[in-house]
Amino acid sequence: MGGRVVGGPSRRGFLRGLGAAALAAGGAGTLAACGGSSGGGAVTGGSGEPSGSITVWSWKNPAAELRALIPAFNAVHPKVQVNVQDIGNPAIWDKITIAMEAGGQGLADLLHIGVDYLPSYIEKFPGGLADLSQLGANQYSSAFAPGLWQTVSRGSKVYALPWEANAAGFFVRADLFKKAGVDPSSLLTWDDVIVAGKKVKAATGTALFAVDKSASQADSANLFQLLMQLQGAFYFNLDGKITLNSPEAVRALTLIKEMDDAGLLADVQGSPGTTGYDTAVKSGKVAVCPDPAWYGGYLEALAPDLKGDWQLILPPAVTPGGSRSAIVNSTHLAVSGTSKNQRAAFAFAEFALTRPDSQVSIFKAKGIFPALLKAYDDPVFHQSDPYFGGQKYAEVFVEELSKPSTPTNYTSDYARALKAVDDAQTKVLLQGAAPAAVLKAAASQLAQQTRRSQA
Amino acid sequence: MSLAVRERAKERGKRPARPAGTARRTGGGTARLAPYLFILPALALFAAFRLYPIGWSFVLSLYHTEGMTQTWTGLGNYQRLIHDPLFWKALGNTGLILVVQVPVMLCLALGLSVALNSALLRWKPLFRLGFFLPVVTGLVTYGLMMGALLNQDSGAVNWLLSLVGLPEVHWLTDPFWAKVSVMLALTWHYTGYNAVIYLARLQGIPDEHYEAAAVDGAGAWRRFWHITLPGLRPALLLTVVLSTIGTLQLFDEPFIMTGGGPDNATTTIGVYLYQTGFRYFDFGYASAIGYALVLIISVFGLIQVKLAKEED
Lengths: 455, 312
Description:
The structure holds two protein chains of two kinds. Helices cover 39% and strands 14% of the residues of chain A. Chain A is α/β, with parallel strands linked by helices. Chain A folds into two domains: 10-166 and 329-401, Periplasmic binding protein-like II (D-Maltodextrin-Binding Protein, domain 2, 3-Layer(aba) Sandwich), CATH 3.40.190.10; 170-324 and 413-450, D-Maltodextrin-Binding Protein, domain 2. Chain A has a five-stranded mixed β-sheet with strand order 5-4-6-15-9. The radius of gyration of chain A is 23 Å and the shape is globular. The two termini of chain A are 19 Å apart. Chain B has 13 helices and two strands, in the order ααββααααααααααα. In chain B, helix 4 runs parallel beside helix 8 and helix 5 packs across helix 8 (175-202). Chain B has a two-stranded antiparallel sheet. The radius of gyration of chain B is 26 Å and the shape is globular. Chain B: Belongs to the binding-protein-dependent transport system permease family. Chain B: It is found in: Cell membrane.
């Protein structure tokens, strides 16, 4: 593309005082971006034993768990003061973006970043995140669930360490299925799901899934994305070409339409972890949560009354004999390129993410599922859970995460693709549009917006 | 120096005489500089936080940006705007809100201000406070509140509809009703603000005009048409210009209530600009959207001011 990285020394000094993008021009909202950091320089924070203070940005439960690790961390690294801040999700993305755009000014030393943003930060803000290979991160290249190292690295450079690995789970209300005379373990394909869903609906009046048909949240196409990933597909292929017009995409959206036509989708505003969705689950409005691993632990706290009513199975395959596993998202810890104490920040990330004891304690407290393979040896991942009717539910995910998985190329244009998919799904579910036609239009719109070609 | 002294000096066609006791001190150059030195901090802040972003964002609009990577594209972003269906959709949505919501709101505010000004009305301060209170509600707070009230399943509005036997309305999830919801929220929030501006102006119209008209046999409608409306003209122009600019910049309400959806039904130019900049990191294109908006607002502003002058 012949691009250049902005941020020459003449401008940078001035810009640093100005902060981030600004809404200007009579309040009309014209943007001004500021230049950046060179990045990629020597590691900051001296050599030898890490020392000094570091700030960490995360949100709610993970922030609380990182904070809980500080005493144990300080027993090993007494000279480092750690300040964990709960920025909130999604507020954290705007905060990081603005600071990145301001050349990294004001960024915390350690950043908790989701897979939907990480590729953008790596690719669109060169130097925004520190290259952790200089701090010895490469020794962990095979320590995490397969596929995740490709997400956090580019060639020999490493931009983050994986934390959560969220394999897709199929959390089934076994009590409702029993009423309808359906055994959840008999669901092998999505055609089976539709047949079973009709029986559950007839017997109990309950819909199968909650879907945000009007896409009030950015991640309203979770079900579509899962159906794509189960087919080994995504919005982009590994070359970065758009695949929204592929047979897999059409199959996924057609399945969703079939389920909606059969009355199996409850229209619920919000996605897992937000009030609308969680209320629907808690009040028994839906019989299945096709959600990431973290939702298991979350569910237990959300709906204690439903103890014993759940059963976890792997998501059914889209085609007979097809894959039944997918890592639907992951989160990571990255050190900012402008951190003055990268060595200490990395030491804390290393302590939290590569040490099984840390990950086990986080899983026990909040059910946040780790990517660290060694952590899975702990008995907590292999014991029966009364909330899931005595099932060894964590083992389902351990098994899923240990399998080789298709790498998912989120690309730096994931946010645009997600929006295009959200809109396409809304057209199908609210206006009765044909899946193939809306996906064709979405793919061409995405190509026009991103200058990417279609596969 | 009093206004009278200045006026007399003007009449004589020469510089006003220096009042006694204010003889020029030595070092007059410094004295002349003094006011500039006093406003220098404000000027510096203005230049740094207003002028610089305005200027730099225009430069940015001439680049294709990918986060911090920039490629010169000249007018490429503006050409891209012309061929971008989402931009036109956002422009259409914003335009629709402008031509439907603004006149409805201003008519309501007009009626309200006349009623609040009426000698027949008791408990005036209470009513005035009641209608003005929405204005002081924070944008995010009232957006969230409206979202909760209009929620399809748990909102109070649908509950009220059900009490009178009406079917539930998909306020935020149907493309048509989502637009209506945003307009309702805007009207609730800003009508009182405009009514207060009108009310202030109404109180400046002398009672004698109404009394004289009444003596001449003019009815209530004629008094409104020939005294109230002409008296309100400057206030009307002000509110029309402010409402037009405000609506063209509309962001908070649709962003909070509907996120611009469903299927972009409530995506305004402001929402699209935000998504382009802060979701897609395409700051060059976002700047071009911002400048297109500046151009549109300028054209509207000029037309409105020109129309007002012609009527004068």
